């Protein structure tokens, strides 16, 4: 039996404690899979004296000096589950440059400055694994990074935030408004006390940047991702979607397409969208995640499961630990970052989208003609029109064909100035051929 592979654990919160528990409970099997024992030699935390119940670990392993722990010569692998940009970036860059492999679940750091981590890994000849950063226990990043390397991926569409999916699923099932559904999600523990990162789409945008980077061999940062949250989605929007045979989901959408001059580019966006009830993602309910991949040779692939939580995330972390530990014992490393394509990022205004626009209008002749004229002015083709109600309840619902998002946005902005349009009740994008 080889000597142990020594781990430094940065963070011991919800995920970190599950990592420790699984390392203890599965020690024999993990030793057999790796070829050597996995040994925790230090755990960096903010409060070493905090009561952690019956966590199976020597209290003497706890330290507040994370950087000192990372620099220790007896550390082979650094496991980071703290989150945030700094000081996590400093710790991980130090480890990687020193040749110590890193396993991280830090989606925010990877989205903000993943290039720096990859460069440090290349410089130090170390592994950088982060399966847990996007979809918890769902095996997703490794298939993109390894299994599909011989294929061309054209589109990745996903539900990658469990909190928002629970809220939208509850609104669809019960007819509740956003605030009511958010209260339920908070009471059940699906939403944080401050849910901003989830409901405003920041969490999903970070994950979208990681997915796009892997899928399209291009460094895509958080700043490259167009983002909208779900706070403006109303019960009326959900009811309107149902009338169309659709449901509303917060989607991350990453596409590779050819520009008008035939050159490929990448578009990455996160926003709520209507999708047909027949779409595979439409049935993904509760706090589950799912990612739909479309590749030229493999066709359509879907990855589904629990995308968050201590145990599911720790499962993905453990999988990465086993992989890097095996590489460490063999004296090898996994393939480095693949960013050779370096495709340009297409601005959101150039992305071709479809809109569902609901207007509260004056109940008089000529309103439809006026509204249609504005769509035509901006070269936006109308797919369907539905009029309902009379008097103060008059409503006009328009679904467009695909057009540049900038043209659709300009159309909506001009509609706001019409005296015959009392209010723009909602504007939602439509995906998946509805």
TrEMBL record:
Cofactor(s) named in the record: a metal cation
Pathway, per Swiss-Prot/TrEMBL?
Amino-acid biosynthesis; L-threonine biosynthesis; L-threonine from L-aspartate: step 3/5; Amino-acid biosynthesis; L-methionine biosynthesis via de novo pathway; L-homoserine from L-aspartate: step 3/3
Q: ACT domain: which residues?
A: 356-432
In its keyword annotation, does this UniProt entry include RNA-binding? no
Keyword flag ATP-binding? no
Give the catalysed reaction(s), semicolon-separated: L-homoserine + NADP(+) = L-aspartate 4-semialdehyde + NADPH + H(+); L-homoserine + NAD(+) = L-aspartate 4-semialdehyde + NADH + H(+)
Q: Which PROSITE patterns match?
A: ACT, HOMOSER_DHGENASE
Keywords, A to Z, come to: Amino-acid biosynthesis, Methionine biosynthesis, NADP, Oxidoreductase, Sodium, Threonine biosynthesis
- At the top of the EC hierarchy, this enzyme's class is oxidoreductase
Q: What is its EC number?
A: 1.1.1.3
The function of this protein is: Catalyzes the conversion of L-aspartate-beta-semialdehyde (L-Asa) to L-homoserine (L-Hse), the third step in the biosynthesis of threonine and methionine from aspartate.
Which family does the record assign?
Answer: Belongs to the homoserine dehydrogenase family.
- What name does this protein carry? Homoserine dehydrogenase
Q: Which organism is it from?
A: Asanoa iriomotensis
